[in-house]
Amino acid sequence: MRIEIKEKKHFLEVLEDCLNRSFDLPIGGISIDSRNIKKNDIFIALNGENVDGNDFINDAFNNGASYALTSIASDKSNHIFINDIQLFIKNLCIHWLKGFNGKIVGITGSNGKTTTKDLVFHILQSKLKVEKTLGNYNTSISVPLSIFSFSLDSDIYVLELGANKVGDIEYLSSMVKPDYGIITSISEAHLKGFGSYKNIEKEKKSIFLYSKEKFNFKENKPNAINDSFKKNKSKVYIKNLEISFHVVSKIFKDLNQSDTKMDLSDDTLKGFKMPSGRGEIIALERNIQIVDDSYNANPESVKAALDYLCTFKGRRKIFVFGDMKELGENKEYFHTEIGKYAIGKTNILLTVGTLSKNAHSNSNNFSLSLHFNDIFSLIKKLKKLLVDNDMILVKGSRSMNLDLIINELKNVK
Questions:
Q1: Fewer CB within 10 Å, N or C, the chain?
Q2: How far is CA 150 from CA 37, 41, 70, 129, 160, in A?
Q3: Which residues pair with 280 in a beta bridge?
Q4: Residue 377 CB: number of other CB atoms within 10 A?
């Protein structure tokens, strides 16, 4: 990850204040990867599970870095020793945000974070100057680094806050202190890291400890949108739309924006593009379509995707299902349940991975049910199976690399 610092003067003042020292060399950007360093960047040498960034400090300087934040002491002036780099970045972000006078929207949840973030950003920018975290930059490191790339004169920052374990959301929330804290949903996701659904719920709700306005859309329904606009849209996307419109309407009202009573229409969302791998419909030749939901998966989101698949009438339906990761000790059960839930919603079930095989316990309920040990075998068979008008749902955890299937299918004639 690398970001370009827009507010270079402000960042330098904050950095000097936090470290109680001056800097002679210019600072233009920040990177945690020595390979994408640009001239005058700061390199942050993070010590991860598999890679120690301290091993690449010389590479960073060779690529043009001005300074390196490192947890290894050195007498070199451009080596800045930081005992706890993550905590330092948090404190740096807190100090940086003191110069920001706008509002912060913090979005968390088991499903729908990125789509909701992008929708909120898209609608808000029709009236305001808005910044957002890019892609899935929602961690304890990527959130503050993203903020350092924002402009101070913006009206709103829209931030996605992610969690893999207990403490992540509270940590991020205590850093950014949202004016509007949003929970999109709570479900069995990352159970391996959290241990239980109760812990997930508690962690998601910790965003409210630091939020001024609280929106819990697990427990409360957002304002409904026009029924005519719901046609051919998934329940998940509709909920994300409703959440986004509910929150944006409140923000516009708070900021005294004109025309705060908005009618949702196609024009409102003109130019909006779904985040990659999160339910986008891709049209192929022969009127074959793919629901690309390959970015990630947990039991709730898979069931919602199957419900969406079921809405496409008059088509043969194919469900390509990859393993759902980080579900803890009950992982086999969750995959078996998906197989049961798919009955009547898909004609063909194709699975890949070690866990998804459990979905075949009810294989007699499908016209065809096959399991594959690798993606390439599945792709080869799927290409042979395809007929005109097929509707294909591809869903699984990110580490299953199901986007390879999407890319291969795009070339089908």
A1: C
A2: 19, 16, 24, 11, 14
A3: 292
A4: 13
Residue with tokens 């508690």: 202
Residues 6+ apart with CB under 8 A from 239: 112, 184, 185, 217, 222
How is residue 385 written in tokens?
């199976």
What are the tens digits of pLDDT across the range 351-370?
999 999 999 987 788 999 99
Architecture (CATH level 2) of domain 2-83: 3-Layer(aba) Sandwich (3.40)
Asked whether the beta carbons of 70 and 51 are under 8 A apart, the reply is no
Count other Cβ atoms within 10 Å, centred on residue 20: 6
Q: How far apart are CA 209 and CA 105, in angstroms?
A: 14
pLDDT band at 220 (very low <50, low <70, confident <90, very high): very high
How many C-alpha atoms does 251 have within 13 Å on its Cβ side?
31
Domain 100-254: assigned CATH number: 3.40.1190.10
Torsion of CA 360, 301, 202, 108, to 10 degrees: 150
